[in-house]
Amino acid sequence: MERKVLLTECMNRRVLALLEDEKVTEFHFGSSGEKKSCCLGEIYVGRVRKILPNIGGAFVEIANGEQCYFALDGKYTPVFTNKIGKKPLVIGDELLVQVEKEAVKTKQPVVTGNLNFTGQYVVLTSGNRTIGVSGKIHGARKEELQKLGQDYIDCDFGLIFRTNCVEAEETQIHAEIDKLAENYHRIVEYGKMRTCFSCLQSAPDPCVQALRDIYKKDLTEIIVEETVEDGALYKEVQTYLKTEMPDELPLLRAYTDPSYPLVKCYNLEGAIREARQERVWMKSGAYLVIQPTEALTVIDVNSGKCLKKNSHFPEINREAAREAVRQIRLRNISGIIIIDFINMKSAEEKKELLAYLQRELKKDPNPGNVMGMTKLQLVEITRKKIRKTLEESLHG
C-alpha cells in the first residue's frame, strides 16, 4: 500500500488529507477563524464547580463559563494546585486537567486528571504507571518493547508504545520518552504556580497534530501547497518535521503550481462532497445509505443495480463491509453504529461476515468493535468518540 499526505487549503481552512493507494481515507481540518472552545489535548488549571455522585461525575470549569465533564472513576490521582479538605474531590478544588474529548453536538467537552503526552512513538501517561504496547504490534517486537519499557518501571508515569514503534530505533524511542518526561514534569511544576483557568499546554494545529499521529509505514510523500497563507503552512510543517519528526523530513515536498492547486489535482472538494452524501455507490452496483441520528448512525446495505443477486449476497456484503469501514473512518463516525446487511441464510455466513468486518475495522487507527448481531440481523458496532465528525468539523 502506498500512502501520502496532502496539506493545503479548502473551504477557507487548512485541510490534511491522507491518501491510501490514491484514495482519500481521512480528512482533518484546521479551525475556521476565531477559536470557540477548548481543543483536544489542551491542559488547564481547572476548578471543580459541581459534583454529581449519582452519575459518577463532576463538572470542572476551565475558563469563565466553560464547564467540562470529569469522570469520578477513581482510576487516576489528579495533580492539585489548590486542595480543599481531605475528601478526594470537593467543590472549589483546583487541579490540572486535560481535554480528552471535544464538545460534540449538545455534549460538553470531557476532561481527565490523567495527563497524556503524545509523541510519534510513545504516549506518556501520568495516571496509569503500567507499560502498554499497541494492539497492532505482535510477537518478538512486542516483547522487545515491553523489555525496553522496564527501564522506566520505577518512574512516576506510564508508557504506551504506539504502532510507529514497529520500525523505530531504540535510541529514537528513548530520546522521545526523555523529551516527553521533561515536558510532563515541567508542566506539573509550572501548573502549581499558575492561577486558575490558566492554559498550560495549547493544542497544536489540528492538521499538524494529525500529521504526528498518522502511521508512518508505507508513507511516501508529505505534499504541502507552498502558496497557502503566503508560505506559512509550508514553513510550519517544515519546522515541525525538523524538530519533532526529522526522519520524515526527506518526505516533504513543496507543491508550487498556483494554476492547478492540490484541491483540484486530487479533487478534494469532490471527495468531501461525496463524504457528506447519504448514498454511497459501490462498484457492484449496490449502495449504502448512511443516516446519522442523535443517538446512533445507521448504515443500510441495498443491492441496488447489482445484477448478481441471491447467490452473490455474501460477496456484496463483504464489499459493503469494506466500504462501510472506509466511510466510518472518512466521516469520523463514532459512538453506536448499526449496519443492516443483506439478509444471510446460514449461521456460517453470518459468522464469516462478522469476522471479516472486524478485520477491516482493525485497519482503522481508531478501530471500532463488532459487538454482535441482533435477532433482526442488525450488526452492532461501537467506535470511540474522540474528534468531531467530518460534518461537525466543517461547521465548527
Describe the protein.
The chain is α+β, with helices and mostly antiparallel strands and 396 residues long. It has three domains: 3-30 and 205-269, Nucleotidyltransferase, domain 5 (2-Layer Sandwich); 41-202, no CATH class; 276-395, Aminopeptidase (3-Layer(aba) Sandwich), CATH 3.40.630. Helix content is 27%, strand content 30%. The strands form four sheets. It has a six-stranded mixed beta sheet, with helices on one face. A five-stranded mixed beta sheet has the order 3-2-1-15-16, sandwiched between helices. Helix 7 (313-331) runs parallel beside helix 8. The model has no long low-confidence stretch (mean pLDDT 91).
Choose one word for the global shape. globular
Overall pLDDT score: 91
**Largest sheet data:** 6 strands, mixed
Uncertain stretches: none
Percent in strands: 25-35%
Q: How far from one another are the termini?
A: 33 Å
| Category by helix and strand content | alpha+beta
Number of helices: 9
Q: What is the count of structural domains?
A: 3
Tell me how many strands there are. Answer: 22
Q: Multimeric state of these chains?
A: single chain
Approximate helicity band = 25-40%
Across the major sheet, the strand order is 17-18-19-20-22-21
Q: Measured on Cα atoms, how large is the radius of gyration?
A: 23 Å
